[in-house]
Design goal:
Length: 138
């Protein structure tokens, strides 16, 4: 993978981090029902962590000589709380998949600092997915 290809891939990841933060903020405010009471606070935590990921990615992109995007990927909303959690889980599973791939690509490039930063994000995405799976009883 070339430097330019990595910058492009990280910029796509960045659009998805922005979208995840926006989606979590909206879902945290809209989620209802006693069984999701605890999850509501967790969604706010997730929103803040996604913003942290976006900041990290933007720094890494500029460190590689790229320009961090301000584009935001598609956001998903629903009327039903369970459906919202499912939308969030889908995003997290996609993030886990992408960052596993990205860590390997960074290592192959010899970009070990980048690989480490992406691993830290990956660990948090795995936690996010587990939180949502637990809330959904999966
Ligand atoms: Fe994230
Ligand atoms: Fe996440």
């Amino acid at each position: 993978m070339t430097n330019e290809e990595m910058i492009a891939a990280l910029n796509k990841d960045l659009t998805l981090e922005y979208a995840a933060a926006v989606q979590y903020i909206q879902h945290a405010a809209m989620v209802t029902g006693a069984k999701y009471q605890a999850m509501q606070k967790e969604l706010v935590v997730h929103a803040n962590e996604e913003i942290g990921h976006a900041i990290l990615l933007a720094e890494q992109i500029s460190g590689l000589g790229g320009i961090p995007t301000v584009d935001v990927a598609e956001r998903f909303t629903a009327d039903d709380s369970t459906e919202m959690m499912k939308q969030d889980l889908e995003g997290e599973r996609d993030a886990v998949r992408r960052y596993k791939e990205r860590v390997g690509q960074a290592r192959d490039m010899g970009e070990f600092g980048l690989a480490r930063a992406l691993e830290d994000i990956l660990i948090m995405e795995e936690e996010h997915a587990r939180d949502l799976e637990a809330a959904l009883g999966l």
